[in-house]
Amino acid sequence: MWSTINGKPTPQQPVQVQQPADQTAPPNNLDVSATVDAGLQREEHGDLQVAMEKYDELLAKAPDNLSALQAKGQLLLRLGTPKEAIILLRKVADSDPKNERAHYSLALAFFEVGDPFAALAEVEQTLKLDPSYSGKFRTDSNFAPYIKSSIDFRQALAAAQRTQKGRKPN
Description:
Order of helices and strands: EEHHHHHHHHH
Low-confidence stretches: none
Strand order of the largest sheet: 1-2
Strand content: under 5%
Number of strands: 2
Oligomer: single chain
Largest sheet: 2 strands, antiparallel
Number of helices: 9
Structural class: mainly alpha
Helix content: 55-70%
CATH superfamily: Tetratricopeptide repeat domain
Number of domains: 1
Radius of gyration: 24 Å
Distance between the termini: 68 Å
């Protein structure tokens, strides 16, 4: 390769760019699954701080990983920080609109921040995706106050139950 300096041709050396030594490859699906599973196990054992650290560690390497975003969002909801949970769970639901678990968790988060209209929209989306969630909503004690106070919520659950009963088994 040749270049021109001051009008005279001169040989040009190829430039090699070195990657920083601390740069790591993004985690593969097995790493992601194992890390999320480890976090969920820590949650089951009541070690919520270590679970959060697992999710944060994974999200530092793969910030758009839907499994990690959902797990952390659900943990934030459990820890009583629904506004933060909504941000992560919204990313999951927007990226994977058929993820009924993300919509289910968003419904609870929106109820907890006092936005019953957004919550009801998420309830309806969850039930549209999977009418069997009507039973989950009814048995989840977190939703009890909202079922009791919202006729719209009760009507959505009743409609989903009718839909579910009308479906024929495969």
